[in-house]
TrEMBL record:
SMART domains: FHA. It comes from the Bacteria. This is FHA domain-containing protein. Pfam families: FHA (PF00498). The lineage of its organism: Bacteria, Pseudomonadati, Myxococcota, Polyangia, Polyangiales. Transmembrane segments: none annotated. It comes from Sorangium cellulosum. Residues 13-59 form the FHA domain.
Length: 86
């Protein structure tokens, strides 16, 4: 198991199989543009948005979900842990 760390400094980070800021080409469960993590600059809150993917995101969400420190998010075959500490 690899443990990669992704620091999200932009207001939007797209995860996908073919395009995006974080790309996993070998994951057959990811759509080309699968999900986006967005930061509200005014509040600092992060939300996870499914980009109409085939397999869904985090228990097949279809609406935006607020992300909190230590949440776990599964996208395709990848498990992410949210760390909001600075």
């Amino acid at each position: 198991m690899t443990r990669d760390v992704y620091h999200l400094y932009r207001d939007e980070t797209v995860i996908g199989r073919e395009t995006g800021d974080i790309v996993f080409t070998a994951d057959p469960f990811l759509s080309r543009r699968h999900a986006a993590i967005r930061r509200n600059p005014a509040t600092g809150e992060f939300t996870l948005t499914d980009l109409e993917s085939s397999n869904g995101t985090y228990v097949a969400i279809r609406e935006d979900v607020s992300l909190h420190d230590r949440d776990f998010v599964r996208i395709g075959q990848h498990l992410f842990r949210v760390d909001l500490s600075r």
